[in-house]
Amino acid sequence: MEQTALVLGATGGVGGEVARLLVARGWRVKALHRGQRRGDGLDWIVGDAMNRDDVLRAAHGVQLIVHAVNPPGYRNWGKLVLPMLDNTIAAARASGARILLPGTVYNYGPDVFPFIAEDAPQRPVTRKGAIRVEMERRLKDCGLPVLIVRCGDFFGPRAGNSWFAQGLVKPGKPVTSISNPGAPGIGHQWAYLPDVAETMVRLVERGDVLPVFARYAMQGYWDADGLQMTGAIARVVGKPELRAGAFPWWLTTVAAPFVTVFRELREMRYLWRQPVRLSNARLLAVLGSEPHTPLDEAVQRTLEGLGCLPCSGLQAIRSAPGQPGLPG
Description:
The longest helix has 19 residues, at 77-95. It is built from 11 helices and 14 strands. By secondary structure, it is an alpha/beta fold. This is NAD(P)H-binding protein.
């Protein structure tokens, strides 16, 4: 019997990657978007995630709702995020679908750093973190099947807004310099989007053994000294001697009152000043292993997708069903 999913945020990094992988796995995938779109093997439906009737209509007959939607450019994030989630919960209740939510480390405060267990208490220190905690509380209380997969900072060839694209390199240009937002010697956790999507879909496929409210964390790439990611960029572009300079945090301070994205980046600076690492023990207990693409390969695909490198053909590689680490 054909399975059907609704993806909210299919034009974004996580939503798009999960949507394409579900299609490759044989799912019918509906995608809600405010304008007319075609492509990626998706059934595009005109509608707005802020409109409950639109979401209810799109979710009719689905078994999975991927809630990966965010306001464009973080505008009005605090006012729009929770109403959008409430619409998803209402649609899942009407259709009997499982909700899949990409989680973040924003939920946690320094009291549980540096190594965060899946059941660590959530005491955030930022406005965005408090909203994220409320999102998960509403999902837990709704009584519906919910899957949350948490990981480090996203990167990938179609990641959209990300620290990799906004903080480390300049999209659309050859790499002549690299910035490092982290303090010297401070570890940081990264997650390659195709691996994240593979992990999410594998968990969805194991839905019969998951608890009603299921939360898992990915290990991804643990950059123990904060230099492994920038070193991989230098190797991939053929400039191993290239050393990363400090990220201009002062610019986010100056521009924060005028540019929403810079204000959001500034708020998350605390995550670059100390090591923050997620435990994937619970994930391994369910899946046995975590999809993991070699770092240099993941970085090369990401730089190609950002227009910083000519395409070498790696992006043309398609994964066979169940093959870890390769984008579907």
